[in-house]
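[Automated response] Your request has been received and processed.

Submitted sequence:
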Amino acid sequence: MYCQKCGAENLENAAICQSCGGVFIYSKPIKTSGMAITAMILSISSFPLLGVFGIVWIIGLVFGIIALNRINRSGGQLRGKGFAIAGIATSAAGLAVLLTIIGVWLFINSATTFSLHKKFKMQIANSMPDIKGIVCVAYNNNEPNDNCTSPLFVAEQLQTESEITGRIVCTSQSGKSAIVKWKFMEEDDDAELYNFNITVPVDNETTSVVVKSVAYDGTEKIVFKDKQMKIYIKPEK
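Generated structure:
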């Protein structure tokens, strides 16, 4: 207990203050601490609602500590220490339960997020081509020059681009140009599916557009062929 004269702490049943020598006069408590009762009620009644996410338990904990401190300093004029202790203990237990639930939820959420991220990365990896090839445009069965060939994809595209596309503009000796565009679509069994969009010259003023899907499996595939030109994919050495 605390001395009412100097405030020093003494043994609970001391008759004389060890600090100032004052004589303790004991009397029956005149009232019960309302704050201690409030702390207990708040801490217990809010359990079904998880302390309204901890706020009520924090209030109950603060009220209980303040009430217990006032009771100890009252020199026996306040009672309700049991209520205050019950409020402190229950609020602390509720906060511990709430923090545990939050910790478990964060762990599960982070594990789920990691799993989804890993699955997403695997999906991206699976949606990228890996069979290398070279698209070639050849006029009159001649070997294509460097301007008329292009790889299906390059390594930089796999790392930086979400869509794998390519394009060639190949001009013949007569000045006519063919435009070849392609886009990787998906894996198809042991092959990889590409959509080709080909603009070929018909005469000096007319062109024709051909759209075609090709499943490339690493062997030479003809994409388009007519009397004047051939477009094909050959394996990259």
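Summary generated for your ticket: The first helix runs from residue 34 to 45. Strands lie at 31-32, 78-79, 133-139, 149-151, 165-171, 177-188, 191-201, 207-216, 221-225, 229-235.
If you did not submit this request, please reply to this message.
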